[in-house]
Design goal:
The complex is a heterodimer.
Chain A lengths: L1 H56 L2 H11 L31 H7 L12
Chain B lengths: L9 H9 L7 H45 L9 E2 L5 E13 L7 H11 L5 H9 L5 E4 L4 H10 L4 E10 L22 H16 L11 E2 L4 H18 L3 E8 L5 E7 L24 E2 L5 H10 L8 E4 L3 E3 L2 E3 L7 E4 H6 L3 H11 L1 H10 L24 H8 L5 E2 L1 H12 L3 E2 L9 H7 L1 E2 L3 H17 L13 E11 L2 E15 L6 E8 L17 H12 L14 H4 L9
Parallel strand pairs in B: 1-5
Antiparallel strand pairs in B: 1-2, 2-3, 2-4, 6-7, 6-18, 8-13, 9-12, 10-11, 14-15, 16-17, 17-18
Helix pairs in contact in B: 1-2, 3-4, 7-16, 8-10, 8-15, 10-12
Classes of the chains: A mainly alpha, B alpha+beta.
Chain lengths: ~120, ~575
Amino acid sequence: MRLLNILVIAALILAASYVYKIKFDSTLQAERLAKVRNEIRKEQDAIARLRAEWAKLETPSRIQSLAERHLTLKPLHPTQFDNLDRLPEKPPQIVNPQSGDPIGAMLATPDTTGSVPAKR
Amino acid sequence: MQSMFPNENRWQRFIRGLLYGRDVDRAVKAKARLGLAIVIFAAVYTVIAVRLVMFATFSDGHNGRRSVGQDAIATARPDILDRNGEILATDVKSPSLFAEPRKLIDVDEAVELLTATLPDLDANEVRERLSSKRGFVWLKRELTPEQQRQVFHLGIPGVGFLPENKRVYPNGPTISHTLGHVNIDNQGIAGIEKWLDGQGLAALHMAGLAADRLQKPVELAVDLRVQFALRDELVKARDKFKSKASAGLVLDVNTGEIVAMVSEPDYDPNNPREANDPTRINRLTTGVFEMGSTFKVFTVAMGLDSGRMNLNTTFDGRQSLRYGRFTIHDDHPMNRMLTIPEIFTYSSNIGAARMALSLGPEYHRAFLKKMGQLDRLRTEIPESAEPIVPKRWGELNTVTISFGHGLSVAPLQAVMGIAATMNGGLLIPPTFLKRSREDALKVATQVLKPETSQKMRYLMRLNAEKGTGTKANVQGYYIGGKTGTAEKVINGRYAKNKLLTDFMAVLPADKPRYLVMIMLDEPQGLPETHGFATAGWNAGPVAGKVIARIAPLLDIAPRFDLPKADQLILASGSGNR
């Protein structure tokens, strides 16, 4: 009978400590979960903010005013379109390799600044 | 013991044991009462144990949920995207400042510190709010992160921040009337935003269920690039012709989608106060106008669809048409018999009037009713206007309405009707939302014979080749178009020098995909237009410029060396899609 009592008490202590451990772990996990959820929400907010900012930066009116200021490009004319199958064979060499990259040269031109049109 | 009631079972004995009765054995009674007590106590302890387990398992989740609910205070709204997925409207979190007056210790100090940090706060108003006995008051909505930091460092007890959703429109005024705007509580008060609230969003908010970013974005039919190009050209046109307003619309004739809509002057939805200015209304849906000669499209379509006339039928254009005390003149009098293509390309008022008269006012009225020109057109956006229809429709009304005077319609409505004459005779209610061809066919009604539509396409193209629409003819896109010039009614009389000009262009005319409408309010004559202010000189060329810009965006490849309209459109048989 005494042995039984001792066994039961031991089992009780074991069970209690095991339950305590589980409870403690679950609390930790729940805290981590809440923290990660919070982080996810913050990241989502940041993504939304950045997407809004990106959309603001690529809004057509801004792109157009920048293009008008910095580029010498002109709107497309209908005659500039053509079919791919009407494309002639590639000519042997269009750009002389020594002359370098024309777009790079345009970028490197020192007299083109932000608000002052380039002097030619 | 069981001698007295040998046949009863355990339960009956238990019940009997509980009762006070002379004939009950004391031992049985005691045992039964003990049993009852055990059962009750066991029940109570079970309840306690279950509750303990519940608290242990669910308490964390409960706390977490409350903190999520807190920042859904200012209602979250779904993003609005254009047809290519570009963002038109989105929510951004920004902190708002609130106070709990009951927790404040020193109101004067708080007012002083807050107004010093946030100069745009009104000191008296803040004091009044903080002195109230309420549990919660807003002090300032939508702080910048810098302001939030400063207020935080003041360290006033009873003052705190809540993250709120703020609606942002990254494209500013480029797209305004379609989207509408929201108020400070993020509730839609105009345009698609208002429509969104009507779609159950408001009810969701009331129930507190509209949490963050769970909602599907709304896709509009608008193409941001086309919208911008249209607006850019309209702003330039308004400057050039010094008109009071300019408006434009691009409609997909096969699905009824509104690909772009601009009514300039417009406003920045980020600053909704501008929208209250009456000059900035959306003229395309909330304004009604006499559309002028573009209404001849309806008159001619009616004539051809009636089966009583064909393209070779002639009408008397030899002299002005007298009707009562009114005389109808032509701008370019021909003084001879005119065929229907001639009436259309010379834009002959007399011819159109005679054509409508030959069918009678009743027929005319019924036809325009069928084309949706006499009833209020409702779309997703709440702004709409009732057309102004004459109460008694006599012959005189038919005469004037045949060339677009005496009946005021919303321009969007006219566009819908003219699209029906181009797309094979289907009247499709226009929409601001993305729609497939199949869905469009479900809501469409066949109002014209397909052959009539084919002839109308021919006439539109012919008019751009050698009629009033030649200045809109962009090489390569095979457009067709009709001009319209209406004199505005000032104090009940038609004013000769105050014009409303519009242009309807269809592209490409052989297989229509889009209808472009340009409208200018009171354009002025310029030296380069030889002082003319009629539609062929202003709205037409603007439409040409717009088409040259938007056609590549709408996937329309330029084609050159196409035959004339009579060969390509008329000879192609029933060239319907």
